[in-house]
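Troubleshooting log. The previous structure file for this entry was overwritten by mistake, so regenerating from the original sequence record. Sequence copied from the archived sheet and checked twice against the printout by T.R.
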Amino acid sequence: MGLSTHVLDTMHGKPAVGMSVALYHNGADGLQCMKKFVLDQDGRNPEGLLINHDELTLGTYRLVFDVAAYFKSRGVDLPEPNFLNQVTLDFGVAQPEQHYHVPLLVSPWSYSTYRGS
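Regenerated output below.
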């Protein structure tokens, strides 16, 4: 089933087009960057799944969303230092045969996430 993400800009009520995201795996050699990408017009990875179902493994992962740069690029007047810079989500994959969807709902001042389907 694999791993996916989706980001919604709750300030503007639309997908976070153009936000930079990085995916890491925390393995035996420590934290390793698996990929970096920019969200498409739907607020998703333009290549689809972040990790295909046959490559998703048991373990811990990290998604890093470049929130401040995204909102600054949209012309939002953020204070210095801004409240949120990067949002880091650490999560575990206990059942790699299942689909793991990690959405982010974000504004310059708040965020939430959950395990989606």
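The longest strand covers residues 30-38. Archived copy saved in two places this time.
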